[in-house]
Design brief:
Layout (H helix, E strand, L loop, with lengths): L1 H13 L12 H24 L1 H7 L1 H14 L14 H6 L8 H22 L3 H4 L10
Helix pairs in contact: 2-4, 3-4, 3-6
């Protein structure tokens, strides 16, 4: 029963077309709507932090609209939000009504490489001294 309630809560949290979970009414229902919005904004901000070059290229309004759609369709699989958004390039590479942009794809790859290097540097500060340009070929 609790697993079903948690699944219903999660589904209502991510889908604005669903009503608040059963048992929430009045003030609790309004607070749930605020929480739902806070979750979406948090995921969008995580994507903004991870892909600042794309944000600059397409502008804030467009980025946030695409990021919201992406975030609600591709929930994080880890609580480490810096890992969230690996598939984002596909959403930006072919948004409905827009041509494919190799610049956006390259920016996404560059942002991914940058975050990866920051993580490795945090784990091993001497890593950046040992890297060669050929080591970055993995980011394609």
């Amino acid at each position: 029963m609790k697993a079903f309630a948690a699944a219903g809560f999660a589904a209502a949290l991510m889908d604005r077309s669903l009503p608040p979970p059963a048992g929430l009414a009045g003030e609790a229902s309004r607070r749930f709507a605020v929480y739902r919005n806070n979750v979406a904004v948090g995921l969008i901000r995580a994507l903004e932090a991870r892909f600042p070059a794309i944000l600059d290229l397409v502008g804030g309004e467009f980025f946030r609209a695409m990021a919201r759609d992406f975030a609600l369709a591709n929930l994080p699989k880890s609580p480490v939000l810096i890992e969230f958004g690996d598939a984002l390039s596909h959403a930006f590479l072919q948004p409905p009504g827009f041509p494919i942009s190799p610049t956006l794809h390259g920016s996404r790859r560059l942002a991914h490489a940058h975050i990866t290097l920051l993580i490795f540097h945090a784990l091993d500060p001497m890593l950046s001294d040992r890297l060669r340009p050929s080591d970055l070929a993995v980011f394609g």
